[in-house]
Amino acid sequence: xxxxxxxxxxxxxxxxxxxxxxxxxxxxxxxxxxxxxxxxxxxxxxxxxxxxxxxxxxxxxxxxxxxxxxxxxxxxxxxxxxxxxxxxxxxxxxxxxxxxxxxxxxxxxxxxxxxxxxxxxxxxxxxxxxxxxxxxxxxxxxxxxxxxxxxxxxxxxxxxxxxxxxxxxxxxxxxxxxxxxxxxxxxxxxxxxxxxxxxxxxxxxxxxxxxxxxxxxxxxxxxxxxxxxxxxxxxxxxxxxxxxxxxxxxxxxxxxxxxxxxxxxxxxxxxxxxxxxxxxxxxxxxxxxxxxxxxxxxxxxxxxxxxxxxxxxxxxxxxxxxx
Length: 323
Hints:
nine-stranded mixed beta sheet, single chain, disordered N terminus, globular
């Protein structure tokens, strides 16, 4: 259903929806865009949306062709582009797992193997509880966890995945201990378990629970970012809610990238063109309709974000291995 809605939305877009000043000149053939996730999810949706809006930046007769390659947790697709000739003819939607998998021994590639172009998703991790929960603030939730170590059940999308690591990070920062409940099928089942009151909380992105929050079924207590999330402007950051000295940042991101060491001219063309795309109001509105908040993090800024998260996850994962 979600995929069909996206297709319908894109069909309604005027062909010249993006009035390009920066047009790609290098491609003489189609550009493959590898999506290392299954069709229909947030990464797939954001990838197809951004390349659809970039289509009028391509020379006549050339296209950006999306190809889903989810095998091996997406590592197969990442490897393909990392090892490709650095000529700009293969792009890939890297995700936050790129900052985690190398430190978990799951992947031989890191952010250093890619040249970031533009970020399509950079949503913070949020603490979500049932609307019937006795916890109305993040401080109340943390206080209860301290009073009942190991008792509060927090769902995640699988042990070692981003939301599980986010729970571990909360434990580290606040001196708490939770009962971490994995739902290896993904975020959907963990949210369903929270709705059914089988667990006490879930860590996920705010957009994943917007419909349930709007319906009064769930509530968001706090976001792990340096600023409030526009989708829920009344929800405080961890720093605000817990009166911390530092920001707590954990983001579920997706960054369109190409192979490392690509020619500087090609890199500049791609970054300039996609920077215009992600700033386009029509593109941003298309993402919002899919529950994704648009961001403008491109080129070297995207590289720095990936580098920062690689360091953070490396330290966090190393600490978990000591326990």
